[in-house]
């Protein structure tokens, strides 16, 4: 095992906070957050600022063919693969100042701190900004880390179009961020991603650090109930085949299925569209979505089976029929045990209160974990709010997360005495 860093080594929390606030000036939202959509002029401005900061810190910045940016701090042995840290700079249309950005600028602060302290590492250290993590302009999310890991082809990603018909490949070219390096050829010793929790657990339990052990698996379904449209005033209740009643029962069933697999399971119906949507017509059709998440694939399968049984019972009772299509499956991600252990040791060494936690959201780390040992570090966010302009964290939380990141990276990159 590599030599543990001294427990008095810390990042410059004030400098990190100032960097976060400076980046937040690019693409300001209307309610205090940010609107810096992927590959817009605002995204380019954020990328250019990040590049200038990295170069000022002595890093060589390269860009791959998906626009992923890598800032390279040399190690004493350049033949070794780098320890890579980062996240994303793009935001939701009504995003906060910290989602993703904390991981990129926290990584930059690690490099700056290593420079300040004159610390050399055997392995190079790199900071990455992944393209289009949010997926709010070009769906699906995490597309560039997905291409990097081989989950998608570059041609598929380049062809993704936004609401105006502009393509991801075309916009990469327009802002000048199609690099020369073939995507995915870069080999990593390990990857760390610092991120806000985007949930309420750490703040509620007064924990400074979440040691992320897994990423949730996800199964998404499109469900369409078919009943029979008829007059709302003249059709007796026992003779109705109401598709909206069927859908409503499934909403309640989804909730009960998730509660039955607490504490990690979640179940959500985010969309429900009745037809013909007339005040005095019994709905004959309803389309809806179901989203199940859990870190254990076997539990996800059990949740699906119970949903299918509930749907069958609903149809038998109401005389409806149904079509169910699984439209997305994202397997659970167990993060690398050795990487997770470096995060846990760092939190303990620094005296931060911590707990193991599962990520309920998807992150670039979940794709990178397919090709490199990976782990994540969570810090709290106020009331668990994210993907909202009022998203907020404290400077102390950001500092704690970056301190742990610094120590995990130093241990993995191997300090040279």
From TrEMBL:
Residues 217-314 form the Peptidase M20 dimerisation domain. Zn(2+) 2 binds at residues 99, 134, 387. The keyword Hydrolase applies. Keywords: Hydrolase, Metal-binding, Zinc. CDD domains: M20_bAS (cd03884). Binds 2 Zn(2+) ions per subunit. GO terms for molecular function: hydrolase activity, acting on carbon-nitrogen (but not peptide) bonds, in linear amidines; metal ion binding. The keyword rRNA processing does not apply. Gene3D superfamilies: 3.30.70.360, Zn peptidases. InterPro entries: Amidase_Cbmase, Bact_exopeptidase_dim_dom, Peptidase_M20, Peptidase_M20_dimer. It holds the Pfam family M20_dimer. Zn(2+) 1 binds at residues 88, 99, 195. Its cofactor is Zn(2+). Belongs to the peptidase M20 family. This is N-carbamoyl-L-amino-acid hydrolase. It comes from Faunimonas pinastri.
